[in-house]
Amino acid sequence: MKTSIATVSISGTFAEKLAAIATAGFDGIEIFEQDFTASDFTPAEVGRMVRDHGLEITLFQPFRDFEGLPDPHRARAFARAARKFDLMNQLGTDLVLVCSSVHPAAMGGIDRMAADFAALGDLAKSHGIRVGFEALAWGRHVNDHRDAWEVVRRADHPNVGLILDSFHTLGRKIDPDTIRRIPGDRIFFVQLADAPAIDMDLLYWSRHFRNMPGEGDLDVTGFLRAVMATGYSGPLSLEIFNDQFRAGLPRLVASDGHRSLIGVMDRVRRAEPTLPVDLPAFPAAAAVQRVEFIEFATSPEEAPALESLLAATGFARAGAHVSKPVTLWRQGGANVLVNTEGKGFTHSSFVAHGTVVSEVALMVPDAQATHARALALLAQDHTQSALPGELEIPAFRGVGGSILRLLDATETLSHIWSVDFRSDAAPAEGAGLTGIDHIGQTMAYDEMLSWALFYTSIFDAQKAPMVDVADPDGLVRSQAVQSGGLRITLNGAEARRTLAGRFVEETFGASVQHIAFATDDIFQTAAKLAEGGFPVLKIGDNYYDDVEARFGLDAALVARMRAANVLYDEEPGGQFFQLYSAPRPDGFFFEIVQRQGNYLGYGAANAAFRIAAQKRSTRAPGMPRA
Questions:
Q1: Considering the domain boundaries, does residue 625 fall inside one?
Q2: In a 10 Å sphere around its CB, with 0-12 CB exposed, 13-18 middle and 19+ buried, how is residue 263 labelled?
Q3: Residues 294 and 325 in one domain
Q4: Which residue ranges does the record assign to the VOC domain (predicted)?
Q5: Maximum distance among all Cα pairs of the chain, rounded to whole angstroms
Q6: 494, 482, 432: which is closest to 452 by C-alpha?
Q7: How large is the average pLDDT for residues 505-532?
Q8: Which pLDDT belongs to residue 625?
Q9: Residues of each annotated binding site for Mg(2+)
Q10: 485 and 519 both lie in a single domain
Q11: Do 222 and 370 fall into the same domain?
Q12: Would you say residue 329 lies in a domain?
C-alpha cells in the first residue's frame, strides 16, 4: 500500500519538504495548494522535482466552497475548478480534494449537491481528473462522511468518489464502523490523523492539535480497520496540522510520520487478521521484561566521581569486561556499567555530552524478534564488532542518541555476565536496592510526541496521561510510558531556565537525566545510604507539614520521612515513597523509590518540591563548574 503525506504537515521550503519526505521513505505527497503557490516553481518544475525525488503527487488539495451554491457563485466555482484542473495536468496529478462547503451562500439539499458533483465529474473527466469529496467536521451542510457518501452515491459518476479523513470522523465521535458499508472502489483517498482528547472548537482543534497516528487519543486503528474492510487499496496519507510540527525539523517529523503509518497498519492487521493490509511481515510488539543494565560513557578522569556516587548508593564493583575498559557495578537486580573506552560509540557519546547514559539493555522475550521489529519501524541498526568468544548483542539507536541493547533467555544472550565479564568477589550487601524502577529522560518539549511514538511503536507499551510539572522558572510537561518492566518518564522542557531545560542545554542533548532504583524498605535503605555518605537531597520542613495534613498521615511516619528526606504520595490502594540524591553539576541525579499496593504513578505531585530543592542545592545558572 502506498504511503503519502501532505506537504502542510512539515516545516521548510517546498524543496526541503520534498527531501525530508523522500528520505523518510514515503511513496508520495499531497500538495497543499498554499505550498505550491508560495514557491517560485512552475507547475511543470514542481512535478519534475517530485518525480526526481522518487515520489508521486497523490492528491492536490484543497478545493473549497464548491457544492450547493446559487449563481453567480456556482458559475465562478466551476470556472475555478477548470483552472485547477489545468494546473493539475501540468503538475502531473489526477486527484483533487473538494472539502464540504462553509460558504455562507451554500444551500442544503443532497440532490442539489449531487447534481453539482455530477456536472463537476463531467468537467473533470475532460481533463483526465478524478474528484474526491470530503466531509469537513465543521462543514455548513455536510459534516459527516455518511452524508458525503450519499452525495457521491447520488452523483453516480465514475470520476467522483469519497475522501475519508480520520479526524473528521473521529473528532465528531461518528462510529467508524459505518464506513464498512461503503464500497471500497468508491473511496478515492484516505487521510489519517490523530489528536489529543481536548474539548474545544473543532476547527481550532483540527488546525493546531492534530498529530501522528498513535500520538493522540483517537481510535485511528478502528477507523483504518473499517476502511480496509471495504476493500480500499489506495494510498494512506497523513494530513497533520500541528504548530510544533510546523516549527520542527522536517526530517524528524517526516520520519515519525512514516513510522506512525507502519505502526497503525500493523495494529490493524493484528486486530483483524483477515483484512488485506499490504505490509511486510515482521514480529509483533512484545513487552520488556526488565532493564538488565544501564551503561555510562565517561573518561578515566571523570570515572572516579561517578563510581564514588555509585558506591555511596550501595553499589559495589562486581566485575570487568573481558576486553574493554568497562567495570560492572551491582546491587540486587540493578547492574550499572562504567565505560571509559577511548574510541567508538561510547567515546563519541562522552565527547558530545560529558558523562552520560549511553546504553540501556533490555531483557525481552525474543531479542532477535524485537530487533527485527525495531528495524521495520524505522529504528537505526547499531552494529559493533565483538572479539571472538564475546557475545554479538542485537542493538539499535534509541531516541536521544543512546543505544538500546536486547537480551533474552536464549542459550547465548542469557550468559552475558559469564561470557563478556570476569566476576570479582561477591558484592557486599549494599543499601537494599532491588532493581531499576524507571528511567527519566529529558528532551525539548516539541520532541516529546516523537519519543513516545518511538517506544509505543516498537514495544508493547502504554502511555499515561501527560501532567504539568511546575518548575520555579517555567513549566515542564511529563508523560510516562511503560512496557512491562520498562518504565520511562519523558520530561519535555520548553523554558531553558528550568532544571530540565538546563540539563538539555548543558549536556548538549543527553537523554537520561535520572535513574530511579527500587527498594522494598525505603527507611532501611535511607539509613544505609546515610552511612555510606549518599548525597541526599534536603527537603524543606514546609513540605512535611503540608503532606501530613494533606493525606492525614501518622505523625510518627511523617517524623521518619522528615528525618530521612523521604517524600510521599498515594493513589487509591497504593502508596509511594521516594528520596533523591543531590544533582551532579550537570543536573543528573539518582532517585530511590518504594511502591506499595497498586501504586502506578511516579510521585508527580512531589515534582515541584523536588525541583525547588534541587535548585536550592545547585549553582546559579551561568556560574562556572568547580
A1: no
A2: buried
A3: yes
A4: 435-582
A5: 91
A6: 482
A7: 95
A8: 47
A9: 438, 514, 591
A10: yes
A11: no
A12: yes
The CATH number that applies at residue 94 is: 3.20.20.150
Reported as half-sphere exposure (CB side, CA atoms, 13 A), residue 194 has a value of 22
| Domain co-membership, 368 together with 469 | no
**Same domain membership, residue 437 and residue 402:** no
- One DSSP character per residue, 324-355 reads SSEEEEEETTEEEEEE--SSHHHHHHHHHHSS
Residues annotated within the binding site for a divalent metal cation are 134, 165, 191, 239
Task: Based on the fold, state whether residues 350 and 319 are members of the same structural domain.
Answer: yes
SS3 content of the chain, % helix, strand, coil (to 5): 40, 25, 35
- Write phi, then psi, for 407 (nearest 5 degrees): -125, 155
Instruction: List all residues 6 or more positions away from 71 whose beta carbon is below 8 Å from its beta carbon.
Output: none
User: pLDDT tens across 58-105, in order?
Assistant: 999 999 999 999 999 999 999 999 999 999 999 999 999 999 999 999
The answer, yes or no, to whether residue 559 has pLDDT greater than 60, is yes
Q: Which residues span the domain enclosing 406? A: 290-423
Q: Which residues are annotated as a binding site?
A: 134, 165, 191, 239, 438, 514, 591
Q: What is the number of H-type helices and E-type strands within the chain? A: 20, 25
Per-residue cell: 225: 480497520
DSSP annotation of 384 reads -
> CB neighbours of 355 closer than 8 A, spacing ≥ 6?
296, 297, 298, 299, 302, 305, 306, 584, 586, 588
The predicted structure's pLDDT at residue 155: 98
CB 358 within 8 A of CB 345: yes
Question: What is the C-alpha to C-alpha distance for residues 161 and 153, in angstroms, rounded to an integer?
Answer: 8
Q: How far is CA 591 from the centre of its chain?
A: 25
Q: Quick check: 547 and 553 in contact, CB under 8 A?
A: yes
Q: According to the model, what pLDDT value does residue 626 have? A: 46
pTM of the model: 0.93
| Angle (CA) 170 175 177, round 5° | 115
48 falls within a domain = yes
Per-residue DSSP letter, 507: T
Asked whether 81 and 64 are in contact (CB, 8 A), the reply is: no
* Amino acid found at 290: R
Residue 615, pLDDT above cutoff 70: yes
Strands in 499-565 per DSSP E: 512-519
pLDDT value at position 619?
A: 56
Report if residue 281 sits inside a domain: no
Do the beta carbons of residue 332 and residue 273 sit within 8 Å? no
Residues 414, 475, single domain; the answer is no
| Joined grid coordinates for residue 201 | 472548537
Task: Return the closest-CA partner of residue 208 out of 245, 175, 257.
Answer: 245
Q: Beta partners for 28?
A: 4, 56
* CATH number (domain holding residue 411): 3.10.180.10
The grid coordinates listed for 334 are 540493578
pLDDT tens by residue, 109-125: 999 999 999 999 999 99
Residue with cell 493539475: 88
Number of domains making up the chain:
3
Do 256 and 310 lie in a common domain? no
Instruction: Give dist(CA 420, CA 337) in Å, integer.
Output: 12
**Any idea what DSSP says for residue 460?**
S
